[in-house]
Amino acid sequence: MASNPYTETLNARLAETLAALESVTADMERVKEELSQARHVSRSRDRAVEATVGHQGQLTELRFLDNKYRTMSSTELAASVLEAVSQARDSMSRQVMLAMDPFNQPLPGLPATEGLGIDWAELFGPGVMAEPENASRRAGARLRDEIHEDGEE
């Protein structure tokens, strides 16, 4: 029986697609494992608070540095805590975004495929798209402005 060139071509393309899918699946498992161990630590600009978050943005540790909190008002301390936590979460979100970006692209050699189409801003909030320095300053400044507007110091 003669071989069918169309069937052979189709089988070869199917084998390539399955190999690419297996490779992507293995890569996703590797990235998932790496991210499950990831942590990010950030300090507030005033160096009074240090926050550590896990790979899902969960707060895992909060430290008050050098007893600075003793001389701060409650609103200043709250602003420092929120700034450090927000900065750590945004940084961790960016790390996740970078690790997952290859899966958001079409598969190499398979132009008909599309990536995952992840909307990072919708998933993590708009702060993840901002530059790290700008994001923390913007969040901290906004909170401090609101505190000042309330007449508290």
Could you walk me through the main structural features you see in this protein, from its secondary elements to its overall organization?
By secondary structure, the chain is mainly alpha-helical. The chain is built from four helices and three strands, in the order αβββααα. The protein has helices at 5-36, 74-100, 120-124, 132-149, and strands at 39-43, 49-54, 59-64. A three-stranded antiparallel beta sheet has the order 1-2-3. β1 (39-43) and β2 form a beta hairpin. α2 packs antiparallel against α4. It is rod-shaped. Mean pLDDT is 79; it is low at 134-153.
Strands, helices and their partners?
Layout: H1 5-36, E1 39-43, E2 49-54, E3 59-64, H2 74-100, H3 120-124, H4 132-149
Antiparallel strand pairs: 1-2, 2-3
Helix pairs in contact: 2-4
Mean pLDDT over the residues: 79
Using only C-alpha atoms, the radius of gyration works out to 23 Å
How many H/I helices?
Answer: 4
Q: What is the terminal separation in angstroms?
A: 89 Å
What characterizes the major β-sheet? 3 strands, antiparallel
Q: What is the β-strand count?
A: 3
Order of helices and strands: HEEEHHH
Tell me the overall shape: rod-shaped
Strands ordered across the widest β-sheet:
1-2-3
Secondary structure class reads mainly alpha
Q: What share of residues is helical?
A: 40-55%
- Range of strand content: 5-15%
- Unreliable spans are 134-153
